[in-house]
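Please review this pair:
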Amino acid sequence: MAKHGEPMAKKHKPRSGSLAFYPRKRALREVPQFTSFNSKGIEGVAPLNFFGYKAGMTHVLGTDKHKKSPTFGQKVQFAVSIIECPPLKVFGIRAYGKKPQGLVCLGEKRAKQLDKKLKRRITIQKKKEKKEKEEPKEFDFSKNIEKISEIRLLAHTQPKLTGIGKKKPEIVEISLSGSVEEQLKFAEEKLGKEITVREVFNELDFLDVKAVTKGKGFSGVVKRFGVKDHRPKAKKQRIVGSIGPWHPATVMFTVARAGQLGYQFRTEFNKKLLAIGNGEKITPKGGFKNYGVVKNDFILIEGSVPGPVKRCVALRKGIRPAPIEKHQLEGVEFVASEQK
């Protein structure tokens, strides 16, 4: 606030709504996927990303140990998001090679026994006793090791282990660190087995979160871009005053227009992972609203996460430098288990 006699600060608001997200259309798919990963400081081979389902939000208490903070040594409260992370099942290995147009799939290999629920996503051929034609040969990873630049795991989520009532799994890719030879050895060991969230992340890591946001349908310019209302005497209040000149008669893409709001991919960087635990400790009485009971491993992430509950969320190790924290918790001392 300005002191008595001093001029008020001039408001400067040239526009609202970032142009970086244009065009604001509905996402074509609901399963998020990262394209770049951070493997700095990791020795050997390790998975770099994971997937889970958003369960809801609560708050936690902890002691602040940041010496420059005004709340140093005091208990502080944070809002956290709970993401249930049932284990991912690896059903295939995929090899990528580098070409001028980017990474290209060279071949893949699948596990012998596949989950029955996977039939809802891909076609699984049944084995016949009498083979009229010879089956196509599988891609030989060892012979083509020089052509391979990266190996990723093909995995699928297991929503049947949760209480959201979903059976159809999501097919995802898990990126690996290390050399190609190390990746191949690790992938063959994990083929047909499960990967848990504890193998990928550690407590107090910084994660990047990606998901499709909550869809809000067709919205006007005031809600979509924060356009200021007109005075009551105007013919219309909740519109843009002028959408462009007469000559040239055109409407620029920068002008706020009504349209789709929400159900778009959004990525949030450097979200702190406060704790990893089991679902029995975190579920409130009666379960989370619109979600139910958390039955598997979960992670506590500081702050909010894009999307509604039950939505699939992609997680990876942060690719940006860790930020200077306003609060540094010694540990989570209390987690709210009641929703009021």
Notes: The chain has two domains: 24-42+62-85+203-230+251-340, 86-120+144-195. The helical segments are 180-190, 221-225, 279-282. The mean pLDDT is 88.
